Amino acid sequence: MQLQTKYYVKHEGNSxxxxxxxxxxxxxxxxxxxxxxxxxxxxxxxxxxxxxxxTGMDSTFLGIIAGAALRLVKTIPKxxxxxxxxxxxxxxxxxxxxxxxxxxxxxxxxxxxxxxSGEAISQGGAKPEDVLRAHENLVETDPSNREKFEDVxxxxxxxxxxxxx
Length: 165
Prior knowledge:
42% of the residues lie in helices and 24% in strands. By secondary structure, it is an alpha/beta fold. A 6-stranded mixed sheet has the order 5-4-3-2-1-6. Helix 1 (30-41) packs parallel to helix 2 (59-73), helix 2 crosses helix 4 (128-141) and helix 4 (128-141) runs antiparallel to helix 5. It is globular and about 45 Å long.
């Protein structure tokens, strides 16, 4: 039996937290981008993502993280995204895509009682437009990602264009 992924979020003042439990992927990350957008629109400049219970992540999830991190570094004062408790494989993915140039990585964090709480956000699959934006974020984060995701981006653009007809 596969564990259902859950995202727990919390917002206090100018900071927000997210805890990922399970595998973060395009199949269940629909609400993540919306959460980040809402937080950034509300003036949040510090986002911590607890990945200590994240069993895996795909490029769409990482692209959503990249988009929020790119927005945070452009805020005044400069904001920060921190990924906490990455497994060796998840850390490798983050580094291979160049996200470590835009996010801070902390190895471990003692979980406070407050981080156990939080609102569970909506899941569901990401829309093709969101998947496309996530992959474009990865290319913006590190131009060497263009080659890695060129076919995915082309495919998604065609799919989106076809669906509009």
